[in-house]
Structures are given as structure tokens and as C-alpha cells.
């Protein structure tokens, strides 16, 4: 039977506020355990929450960016459950009246079209602390620094039809929140976490199958792999006459399999009720309009502009705009080099390659846009060849500094002195008698290709510094002069 | 609506309250008398009345996003039964 995959995503986005959603404790990442957990975060008796104005503003920004209705009145509720990293015994969240109502975004599909993914709603809530299960004499350690960090949870409709679409949707949300500056986008530090609801149904069917929930996935690659794995499991199960059980599952990237978390799950009964410690949040049209005025250029608009302004292909513009920091880096390069094509090639080529190899984000790039621009300018003015530029880039990457100093210190300037190049060409022709004879004996239309061998020898002799155009010209003239008249 | 013995036991478990069998019977009867009051209220026609989110007729005040809390870990951990390396220690929560 042919199956259709149905996916809905719940994405938790950590807002980049200075302080917690309901207290004035810092949210800075990486502090010593429990040094940023104040009496409110610890739920000490007698403390009361006060809502962070910036968390509200950021949630509204997000809503406007995804074409959503903004809740002019939103209400915080208590979601009750017990876990040691949740000191209050409930999570303050929103349910019936969230800050962001129905909206949508468009994603590109594998077939090259677009698909509209509807957003059911997005709500504000607080994060929990962290449990550390390493051995503390058989006990669990609790760090509450993260407790109370503001989150926006974005709940999509089950509108995605493949693992790739789910990853594309998550990437788009990532691009939007980083462009808005409401989230640092650092997935490794948990700034964006994703729960995937996955079900399958016979192709053509309109009813939804029983879904499973894959919890807490924190990379785009894992979203794709976890869903693919889970879909394959569900198909096998059903085709073998079994039934999918509604449950929460964990994805294990090392074994590339999902496994049930059932043992931990009792019937969830969160007994939501409006939080008596917080009043309804009420905003008006003026407030919303003021925020709308401050919205930056969003990824879709930026991509369209890159295509027209820099004559980039749709694909290249899409890749560059997938991350706002990368798009910023690119634009800084274009500004400093005046060459949109060269800049695009380097950002998506050498730079991306090195970042990927070391699993770095462009924000952590050891080579800044200004440093790279210094290098590209020297390619453009033909001080160095493209090949040498890659060497200089490696040095910039590992040792820092600036391109001009490296080119000088290592003597990497391109040789354009015709005399020096001619000497190298003569030497190669003299040393490679068999190849020269082959060249002379070859059919005229084959010779062009054979020139490549001599090119390689001369470039090697010049340590990559000879101007390739000049070498080619001279080689051709000199070899053709040897042809029998 | 009324609660039986197992309902009360379940509610107590969800709230992590330890209650004896004798207490459960007692709570069941007191809770049921409260529920009968709620039943009486249910008879009221609430058509067109917005659900109440808060008894105060007011809206939430907002706080500026500025750090106002300093590290008081040492003081705050004096009332914890067990701490190590700055962490609160609790009975192991996973197998």
C-alpha cells in the first residue's frame, strides 16, 4: 500500500531576553549552577511573578512575522505536574487564550513548489530547570538557572507531508526568529527544541492515523532522520498487522531508532486553571502597530531582494538567507568587495565547508567578513590566484591576521612577469618531451584538452603563483610554434 | 457529579499527597458536599457571560527587562536538605 506521512511540529523557542519571564534574574547561558535562580524561580513561599514586558513584545513580533492574529487579551494558566526541575509544581503557560492566534508560513517543497503550513497558535510559557543524572551518590542534581526562561511554543497544524518538509519548516522558523532577533538560534545550547507529531495514513485518505510524538529534537538533521525512522517503524508495524499506539517516543541518534518513553508516562492530567497570581495581559492596536513598524526585513523578503539586487539564483539566495547571520555576513562582504558573485561563492564554498567540518555556526566563524573581504579584494585585483587564495584562507582560519600581511610574508603574490612565466613554460616544454610529442601528433581538436597537463606542470613549478591566463596563452603559442608547418 | 474513593485516591496521587484509606472516605464526603454547591451554581444561566480569568477587574502590569536579582545561591541553599557543587540534590528521578 502507498502511505502518506502527516507531520505537525511543536517548536519551543527560547526568547533572548535579559531576564526571566516572571523574575528579574539573568538568563545568560553557562553560569555556575543556581547562581541565576532567584526566590521567584525557586518558588519560595510569598513570592509573586511579574511579567516581562520584553517577552510580550517578542511574542507579538513573532506573531506579526507569521501573519497571525495577535491576542489582544491573553491569559496565563497553570499546567500542573510534578518533577524536581519544576519547583512550583506547575508550569505557567497559556492555553485557551494565547498571545498568538492562527497564522501561517510558506515553505519550499522538494518538488520545487511551495507549501503553506498553518500555525495553530503560539503561546508564552516558562522553561523548567535541568536535571543532572550523573552520579551524585545515587541522587539527581538540579540546576534551576534555566527555570523561568521565557519560551514561545509554536504549534503547527498537521500540514507537513515529509521529513524534509518538517525540516524545511523548522529551518524557516529558525530563520524568522533569528532575523527578528528574538532568539539566538543556538540549537546546541537548546535555544530551539522541537517535538514532532508523526502519523501515517493510506494515500488518499482524509482521516488522521494514530500519532506518536518524538520529543526534544535539537537539530534539523535529527528532525529529518527521526521522522524518517519513525515513519518506517509505523509502516512496518501496520503492514505486519499491528497498530500504532499513541505515545511519546525518544529518538536515539546513535542507533538511529526511536523508542518508547511509556514507562514514565502516566495518564497526563495537567488540571489547567487560570493562574491567580497573574492578571490577564491586555494590549491594544496601537501597541501592536508600534511593534509592526519595528519589524526587520524578513527572510522571504530578503531572499527576493538578493535575487534582484545581487543577481543570485533562487537556490543561492535561499541558502544565504536561511540564517540571518549568514545573510548579514554575505552582505558585509558584498559591500566591502563590490562583487556579489565572488562573495556568494566563498560564503557557500570555502567558508561553509570549514564551518561544517568543525560544526561551527557562522556567528562563531574565526574569519570575520572584513578579514574575508580583504582576501577577496586580492583575488579581484589579481594579486593572487584563486588557488593561492584558498591557502591564504586556511591561514586566516587557523592563525588569524589579514590577507595582505599573509600574502607578503609568504611571498604568495601572483607572478604576472612575462619573463618569469616564459622561463617556467620553456622549462616544462624542455622536460616533458614525450608529452610534447604526443601533443604535436594529436588531432587539432584534442590539443586543447592536452594543454591541461602542461598548465598543471607550470602552475606546480610556480607554486601556484603564475597567472593562469598568461600561462595558458604562452603555452599555446610556444607549443603550436613547434607544429610542423 | 460526585467523587468516589478511587477518584479521591487519584487526585491525591496527582497532587503527591499521602492520604490513608480512612482519610480518603472523609475527604470524599467533604469534597462531595462542595461539589453539590457547584452543582447548584451550574443551574445558573451563564449564556453570553465571558469566563472569568481573574476576580480582580484589572490587567497585568509589565516589568522592564532589566536584571534586578543578584546571586544569592548560598543563602537560598541553606534551607535545602542536600546540595553539592552548587546543585540541589533530590532523590534519583530516573531508573
Biggest chain contact: A-B, 53 and 37 residues
Helix content of chain B: 25-40%
Low-confidence runs of at least 5 consecutive residues of chain B: none
How much of the polypeptide of chain A forms β-strand, as a percent range?
Answer: 15-25%
Overall domain count of chain A: 3
Strand content of chain B: 5-15%
How many beta-strand runs of chain A? 16
What is the percent of helical residues of chain A? 40-55%
Instruction: Decide which structural class fits the backbone of chain A.
Output: alpha+beta
Cα separation of the termini of chain A:
72 Å
- Using the alpha-carbon principal axes, give the shape of chain B: flat
CATH class membership of the domain at 1-43 in chain B: Mainly Alpha
The major β-sheet of chain B equals: 2 strands, antiparallel
Using the coordinates shown, work out and report the CATH topology of the domain at 1-43 in chain B. Histone, subunit A
Number of strands of chain B: 3
Q: Please state the average pLDDT score of chain A.
A: 91
Keywords (chain B): ATP-binding, Ligase, Nucleotide-binding, Protein biosynthesis, Transferase
Subunit structure (chain B): Heterotrimer of A, B and C subunits.
Catalytic activity (chain B): L-glutamyl-tRNA(Gln) + L-glutamine + ATP + H2O = L-glutaminyl-tRNA(Gln) + L-glutamate + ADP + phosphate + H(+); L-aspartyl-tRNA(Asn) + L-glutamine + ATP + H2O = L-asparaginyl-tRNA(Asn) + L-glutamate + ADP + phosphate + 2 H(+)
Family (chain B): Belongs to the GatC family.
Amino acid at each position: 500500500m502507498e502511505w502518506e506521512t502527516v507531520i505537525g511540529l511543536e517548536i519551543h523557542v527560547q526568547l533572548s531576553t535579559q531576564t526571566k519571564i516572571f523574575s528579574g534574574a539573568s538568563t545568560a547561558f553557562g553560569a555556575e549552577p543556581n547562581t541565576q535562580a532567584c526566590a521567584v524561580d525557586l518558588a519560595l513561599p510569598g513570592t509573586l511573578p511579574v511579567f516581562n514586558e520584553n517577552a510580550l513584545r517578542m511574542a507579538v513580533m513573532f506573531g506579526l512575522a507569521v501573519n497571525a492574529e495577535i491576542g489582544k487579551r491573553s491569559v496565563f494558566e497553570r499546567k500542573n505536574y510534578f518533577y524536581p526541575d519544576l519547583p512550583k509544581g506547575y508550569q505557567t503557560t497559556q492555553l485557551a487564550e494565547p498571545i498568538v492566534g492562527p497564522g501561517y508560513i510558506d515553505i519550499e517543497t522538494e518538488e520545487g513548489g511551495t507549501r503553506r503550513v498553518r500555525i495553530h497558535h503560539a503561546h508564552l510559557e516558562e522553561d523548567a530547570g535541568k536535571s543532572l543524572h550523573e552520579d551524585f551518590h545515587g541522587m539527581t542534581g538540579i540546576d534551576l538557572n534555566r527555570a523561568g526562561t521565557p519560551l514561545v511554543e509554536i504549534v503547527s497544524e498537521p500540514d507537513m507531508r515529509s521529513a524534509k518538509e518538517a525540516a524545511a519548516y523548522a529551518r524557516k522558523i529558525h530563520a524568522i526568529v533569528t532575523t527578528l532577533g528574538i532568539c539566538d538560534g543556538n540549537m546546541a545550547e537548546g535555544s530551539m527544541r522541537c517535538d514532532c507529531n508523526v502519523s501515517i495514513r493510506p494515500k488518499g485518505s482524509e482521516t488522521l492515523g494514530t500519532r506518536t510524538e518524538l520529543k526534544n529534537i535539537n537539530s534539523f538533521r535529527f528532525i529529518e532522520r527521526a521522522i524518517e525512522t519513525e515513519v518506517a517503524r509505523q509502516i512496518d508495524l501496520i503492514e505486519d498487522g499491528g497498530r500504532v499506539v499513541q505515545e511519546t517516543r525518544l529518538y536515539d541518534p546513535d542507533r538511529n531508532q526511536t523508542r518508547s518513553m511509556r514507562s514514565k508516562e502516566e495518564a497526563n492530567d495537567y488540571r489547567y486553571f487560570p493562574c491567580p497570581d497573574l492578571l490577564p495581559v491586555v494590549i491594544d492596536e496601537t501597541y501592536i502597530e508600534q511593534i509592526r513598524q519595528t519589524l526587520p526585513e524578513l527572510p522571504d523578503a530578503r531572499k527576493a531582494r538578493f535575487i534582484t539586487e545581487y543577481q543570485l539564483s533562487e537556490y543561492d539566495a535561499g541558502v544565504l538567507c536561511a540564517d540571518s547571520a549568514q545573510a548579514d555576513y554575505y552582505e558585509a562582504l558584498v559591500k566591502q568587495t563590490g562583487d556579489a558573485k565572488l562573495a556568494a561563492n566563498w560564503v557557500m564554498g570555502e567558508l561553509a565547508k570549514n564551518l561544517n567540518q568543525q560544526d561551527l555556526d557562522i556567528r562563531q566563524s574565526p574569519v570575520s567578513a572584513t578579514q574575508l573581504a580583504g582576501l577577496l579584494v586580492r583575488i579581484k585585483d589579481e594579486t593572487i590566484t584563486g588557488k593561492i587564495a584558498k591557502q591564504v584562507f586556511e591561514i586566516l582560519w587557523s592563525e588569524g591576521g589579514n590577507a595582505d600581511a599573509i600574502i607578503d610574508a609568504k611571498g604568495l603574490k601572483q607572478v604576472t612577469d612575462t619573463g618569469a612565466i616564459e622561463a617556467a613554460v620553456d622549462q616544462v616544454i624542455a622536460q616533458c618531451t614525450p608529452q610534447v610529442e604526443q601533443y604535436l601528433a594529436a588531432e587539432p581538436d584534442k590539443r586543447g584538452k592536452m594543454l591541461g597537463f602542461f598548465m598543471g606542470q607550470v602552475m606546480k613549478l610556480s607554486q601556484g603563483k603564475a597567472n593562469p591566463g598568461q600561462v595558458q596563452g604562452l603555452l599555446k603559442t610556444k607549443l603550436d610554434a613547434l607544429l610542423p608547418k | 457529579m460526585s467523587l468516589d474513593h478511587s477518584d479521591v485516591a487519584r487526585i491525591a496521587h496527582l497532587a503527591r499527597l499521602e492520604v490513608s484509606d480512612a482519610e480518603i472516605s472523609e475527604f470524599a464526603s467533604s469534597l462531595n458536599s462542595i461539589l453539590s454547591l457547584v452543582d447548584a451554581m451550574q443551574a445558573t444561566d451563564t449564556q453570553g457571560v465571558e469566563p472569568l480569568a481573574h476576580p480582580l477587574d484589572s490587567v497585568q502590569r509589565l516589568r522592564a527587562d532589566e536584571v534586578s536579582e543578584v546571586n544569592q545561591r548560598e543563602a537560598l541553599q541553606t534551607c535545602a536538605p542536600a546540595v553539592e557543587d552548587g546543585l540541589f540534590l533530590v532523590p534519583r528521578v530516573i531508573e
